[in-house]
């Protein structure tokens, strides 16, 4: 095998991003939580298992690694994991921000490039209703600490919940306005559980488009990015979106050590538990071969 070799699936989609779920545990209990689709997590991967898969990813031309959960910052070895990210790979974390205020500086020093922070409301009562925790201020302090530490851009992930927080979009636009290091991501809720809060973001996109001075298309997922009056807003609308899947560049690893070719499928996972070297590499190739767009 050459030093780096970018793998493509049979639809010609290159795989350049690895999303590693470090745990399915979380210190919040959001009403819509899908924990990246893992419902019955067994034991979590060890530090060494995570490092082994990152090293294989580097050989296969993975350019960025996203650590997710559950809540990834509750892992006691999180700094060791970040320190072990192979040279040349950009790392980021998606976190609920509860522990970020105390950890931001150490995360940056360990080599983390940036963070996405899940924040669905700027109203303390609504935040508590959604997450079960009266801790909005911890998250806001975490965002400030991440900005100060240079974990930027800090992306705020706001999942739009119909009838709960869909009246707060303007408050969020005000919050990110004029801070070039803050990006707002408006996310369409996915139906993992029976959940009555799903709302189509088509209307929101039309509103953003009408108020925007510029609209860009990100290569990744072909997501639209709107620039309006000092605020940068990205819209994540994965459902029934063939374009989103056509430009998907991701492979996932579940916290219990399975390669997962698509977020929305549970029937094609490949366990990497107990494997290393050539065997692990061959499973990585196989997982890429098994990738196919969920919405075609
Ligand atoms: N269908 C689908 N949805 C995804 C995928 N990746 C992320 N999402 C959605 O995007 C939301 C935000 O994900 P994040 O973990 O913050 O990362 P991201 O925005 O995808 O990545 P960056 O912009 O590179 O930071 C998730 O909650 C999902 O709803 C994917 O591969 N497929
Ligand atoms: S913060 Fe994320 S992982 Fe934790 S409960 Fe909420 S949605 Fe689930
Ligand atoms: S649904 Fe599957 S194929 Fe589509 S973007 Fe998400 S992970 Fe990729």
What is CATH's topology name?
Answer: TIM Barrel
Count of separate structural domains: 1
Order of helices and strands: EHEHEHEHHEHEHEEEHEEEH
Name of the level-1 CATH class: Alpha Beta
Low-confidence stretches: none
Q: What is the terminal-to-terminal distance?
A: 32 Å
Architecture (CATH level 2) name: Alpha-Beta Barrel
What gyration radius follows from the Cα positions, in whole Å?
19 Å
The coarse overall form would be globular
Helix content: 25-40%
- Largest sheet, order of strands side by side? 7-8-9-6-5-4-3-2-1-10-11-12
The amount of beta strand, in percent, is: 15-25%
The major beta sheet can be summarized as: 12 strands, mixed
Number of strands: 12
* Number of helical stretches of at least 4 residues: 9
Binding site for [4Fe-4S] cluster 1: 26, 30, 33
Enzyme class: lyase
InterPro entries: Aldolase_TIM, Elp3/MiaA/NifB-like_rSAM, MoaA-like, MoaA_arc, MoaA_NifB_PqqE_Fe-S-bd_CS, MoaA_twitch, MoCo_biosynth_MoaA/MoaC, rSAM
Family: Belongs to the radical SAM superfamily. MoaA family.
Primary descriptors:
alpha/beta; nucleotide-binding; TIM Barrel; binds guanosine-5'-triphosphate; 296 residues; iron-sulfur; binds iron/sulfur cluster; single chain
